[in-house]
Amino acid sequence: MTNIQLLTQPGKINRMTTRNRIVMSSAITNTDNPDGTVHDQTIAYYVERGKGGAGIVNTGYNFICQRGRAGLYQMSTASDDMIPSMRRLTEAFHAAAPHSRIGSQISHAGRQTNSHVTGEIPEAPSALVGPLPTGHKMEVPEEMSVKRIQEVVELFARAAWRSKEAGFDLVEIHAAHGYLVSQFISPYSNQRTDAYGGSLEKRMRFALEVMEAVRGAVGPDYPVGIRINGDDMVDGGYTLEEYKQVAKIIENSGFVDYISVSAGQHHPDAVAIMVAPMAMPMGFLEYLGAGIRSIVEKVPVFIVGRIKDPLYAEGILERGSADYVIMTRALMADPELPNKVHEGRLEDIRPCIACMQGCTDRTWSQLDLTCLVNPVAGREREWAELKPAERKKRVLVVGGGPAGMEAARVAALRGHDVTLWERSDRLGGATLLAAMPPRREEFLDLPRWLSGQLPKAGVKVELNRMADAASVKAFAPDVLIAATGAYEETPEHIPGWNLPHVTNIRDVLSGHVAVGERVLMVGYDTQVLETAEWLADRGKKVYLVSAAPVQAWEDPWAALANDKNGFTARHTLMGFVKDKIEFLPFMMVKKIEPGAVILSKTGEQHPCTTHVRMGEMEDRRLEVDTVIIHLRQRPVNRWLEGLEGTVPEVYKIGDCLEPRQAIDAMTDGARIGREI
Question: Are 395 and 402 in contact (CB under 8 A)?
Fold first, then answer.
């Protein structure tokens, strides 16, 4: 057993004791009712994190007034009518997890919202527009009067009181990430010249008034925390040096019992800092926690920053960088992580891979939260309890990718007799290729965990085993689950598609083909960009022609990677790849020749165009050694022909059903494993 001691030690915040130093910070789930009342799914979600053993589970974003809400499906602390609703959550949490603590993060969006969400024009310290991560502009907010500032201070106090009355163990004031309190603190968003702007001390006035009012509302013995940035990560914002002063002012006020340190603003340059994708290294914000810890003497410091490994978290505490470690997405991926740490079962922890597909990509689109590696997340009401099978069946799963392995694992845990066939010598399927481009290596953590869990669940795995109608009939399963993935469609509509130097991404990444020095890639999704960078890093000259159905004139790069949210592509991948490849927008492949391609204009016109040119436009001949075309994928399921009526139950899952994202494959596997 690996020696983890500090992470599992109890902690003390005010008079509240925590069972360990593991924290789940507030993260939007979009599972609450539109009127702000707590939904049963929200309760089920947080109950599982409490049962899993986290020391503190903070709920949020909980808005203090209608004008301060940031989304359509968030918890409300805006009126006394909300107290019974919130109490349903805290009572269920405490009944299921009496040794864990649940908190309410009270929040006001300020300018970081819009009238579609709130029904009112946003309000902010200054009438400055705040850009969304996509680059679209927000509505111009109304500059708050001093009278309105005092009203909002009281709204924070009332929200804190309601949270305490509802049974929450603590409240946390959200003063980070460019929401209202953060907007007052940072010169990036506060250009006031009155008592609430100008110097750092004046910009801190609103935050201090909020903290004082909250403390007055809940009393001296009730735990109150505040979440701040350690760095705004934008030009014109504060850096760590200024936030050290902010933290010292907060500590000296005596109004709060801990400081939670995060980073980043709602800005294209900082959004990948605020919620970090796989491209960001684990623990990359530890230095901010250490910086704040160096100046703060009397209150605990929490730190965040893609911390998923308990051993790394232990190291943060050993180095004295923080007193508590925030592992939010790790707890989304595996709510049992703290219990497994206490039990020494680190190898059984289901790993977060920071893919963003189930959490941020969904919640920032006003969809409810789930998780690629943990399909139960967001479905706890229906799936948290794995019910034994009513009748034990002989199950054959064909295909050892994520969909097949998850289906096999779940079915075996329910009591079925499960065998899995994989045609290659290694489990993992498409994730093995997805992990090859730069900064995508953690995709391997998923097949590594799944393959390690299969024998523990009782699944019999046979590698190098091909499936066809005859072999399946001979096996005689009660249930056949086809998880054989997809193949790249041949681009037969392009003249020259069958020349020997034309290939696809799968064959390139798997090493089945040799790639020349000059490469043309045709496609537009994230995998195209990832593969382009992978080739460029190997010294290849890479050209890219987008096959996107809609191209963007103002920023042609915006047409690329639209299969992912801005976190994954726009603000990380783009930054890495732009200087490594040559993008040829508004072009299409007209013909492929030996050693070259003929490119022509797509014919798309700028919206401001008033004159239309008729006739042929000039083609461009580009000399290349390899052409990689990535347009469409098709299911690998022809091998099922001849099995009709011979197997009682047949299911297709993952890309074998329809090529989609990895999150869909895992969800398919989890669903079928529960249904059979």
Answer: no
C-beta separation of 122 from 111 below 8 A: yes
Task: Give per-residue burial for 199-231: e unless 16+ CB within 10 Å, then b.
Answer: eeebbbbbbbbbbebbbebbeeebbbbbbbbbb
Tell me what the pLDDT averaged over the chain comes to: 93
pLDDT score at 615: 47
Among 233, 179, 133, 113, smallest CA distance to 564 is for 133
The reply to whether the predicted model has a pTM over 0.90 is: yes
Active site residues: 179
Q: How confident is the model at residue 611, as a pLDDT?
A: 46
d(CA 84, CA 473): 58
Check whether 436 has a pLDDT greater than 80.
yes
> Rounded CA gap, 546 and 583, in Å?
8
Instruction: For 331-389, write each residue's pLDDT tens digit.
Output: 999 999 999 999 999 999 999 999 989 998 888 888 999 999 999 999 999 999 999 99
Provide the H-helix boundaries in 348-444.
360-363, 380-383, 402-413, 430-434
d(CA 234, CA 266): 9
Q: How confident is the model at residue 453 (pLDDT cuts 50, 70, 90)?
A: very high
For 439, the token pair is 């900064």
Tokens 């310290």, residue located: 125
Q: Which residue, chain included where needed, has tokens 């609103």? A: 206
Q: Is residue 534 scored above 70 in pLDDT?
A: yes
What's the pLDDT score for residue 438? 87
| 368, amino acid identity | D
How many DSSP H helices and E strands does the chain contain?
A: 23, 27
- E-state strands within 223-283: 224-229, 258-262
SS3 of residue 158 by DSSP: helix
Cβ-based neighbours of 33, under 8 Å, separated by 6 or more: 39, 73
In degrees rounded to 5, what are phi and psi of residue 107? Answer: -145, 155
CB atoms within 10 A of CB 643: 17
